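**User:** Once you have settled down, spend some time on the protein underneath, comparing sequence with structure tokens, and judge whether sequence predicts the tokens.
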Amino acid sequence: MEKEMKGHIKVYYSVLCEDDKGKDISIKQLVENEKVANAIKREFGEGARNLEVSANGKDGIRLSTAKAVHDFIIDKDDFIDALDLAEENARSRMLNRKKGCDRIALVNLETID
């Protein structure tokens, strides 16, 4: 006997395109770039001379294509089909009409009831 789940889930997703960009850049790579290092010195050095910029951690940044996040609401019982329903929602809203933009990435799922 299947138990029915009550409530809803808000599904957040983005449409992915073939020409989307994504690159991880380490802090070390940033400070080794002369233009970036000089910009940091100008912005944060406040007139001081003989400054050196160095990395003090392994964290970095991600450079990627900005994506709009779309949302819709489903029943909790439809949780297993969230990706398929997101694809349907994108098609019905004509969000993936651009050539090469036929994939969906789930961004977040939020219980609302």
Notes: The chain has a mean pLDDT of 90. The longest helix spans residues 34-44. The chain has two domains: 1-20+65-113, 23-64. The chain has three helices and five strands.
